Amino acid sequence: xxxxxxxxxxxxxxxxxxxxxxxxxxxxxxxxxxxxxxxxxxxxxxxxxxxxxxxxxxxxxxxxxxxxxxxxxxxxxxxxxxxxxxxxxxxxxxxxxxxxxxxxxxxxxxxxxxxxxxxxxxxxxxxxxxxxxxxxxxxxxxxxxxxxxxxxxxxxxxxxxxxxxxxxxxxxxxxxxxxxxxxxxxxxxxxxxxxxxxxxxxxxxxxxxxxxxxxxxxxxxxxxxxxxxxxxxxxxxxxxxxxxxxxxxxxxxxxxxxxxxxxxxxxxxxxxxxxxxxxxxxxxxxxxxxxxxxxxxxxxxxxxxxxxxxxxxxxxxxxxxxxxxxxxxxxxxxxxxxxxxxxxxxxxxxxxxxxxxxxxxxxxxxxxxxxxxxxxxxxxxxxxxxxxxxxxxxxxxxxxxxxxxxxxxxxxxxxxxxxxxxxxxxx
Length: 427
What we know:
Blueprint: H1 25-59, H2 64-92, H3 94-112, H4 118-145, H5 152-181, H6 183-201, H7 217-239, H8 242-258, H9 264-271, H10 276-291, H11 297-304, H12 306-323, H13 330-357, H14 364-393, H15 396-415, H16 422-426
């Protein structure tokens, strides 16, 4: 990393100055705790909103295809701004990005509190998608730069644990709020949790390598004009690396399937007459079962290998998601949810680690932006695709199609295992 610049100002949200080469264990621990808390809270807020938005639309008799449009809207703006967002993060600091994202999430949640018509719901999801990607992208880049690179695997494993905890806690909270007090209270709860993100962020120290001072709008637009061509070249260089292709490819396939979790999986459970609380428990189970493995992610990678872990998790996830098409009782659906949760438990953290290790320290925000841009494509296209499958062939068929996608991905990794041996040396 670059040598420290002693002229850098003291971070306004902390009593400690910005440091980019000295990693005091106590300071690193403090930073890690706060960014993990921010990430967990952000995921809770996001899940409360996204779980209840499709159910609210169902309650006002919106079509299944329109539900797909609303879920897709959440990923539309992130698809466009991930790489530019990465540029801004590396230059103006991660804290400002987190603050803007959390504030925007509050606005989106408060608009939903009025229980608007479907068209307005689409607009709120566009804003919420922007808000969420900014916070998550900044948090990932923060984890990349807050400590010595040798600790990245451990720190990303902890970050994934915090990420998973947010996904675990969010669905039951979303379901209980909706069952006890209705959708209006649930959306207000999302706003409150986002306000807590803002509060914790005020005490977060800045670690962005390019952090200097605030830029005005003219400075930001000039920065984008100067940096985008260079970032495009850097992105092209990154995407040519086999490990980057592996990281992005697996992440894209898994996220394509995961779009069911906040769309037609909810619709299916609603159709079999599950309460919002039960729906929340099943959604949380997918992440909760994954949490059992995440503390052991690093040793399992060392012992088993990254590729075998990903192949096995894809197969088990395919069995879990495919079996949903044949199940209507809570207990077997609970078991299927556990199997489904295994897939992102391993594939997503490994993907992040591969991406972080493939990029220089001073463009971690840009690298994560490239990965997130690729990730947003399936999040945008997935609900539309599964909505079309549901309309043409029936709701049950979307789960079988998703299972086939995971099985094919596992088979591809197995056949290509001899060409991906570099992945073993990363860990």
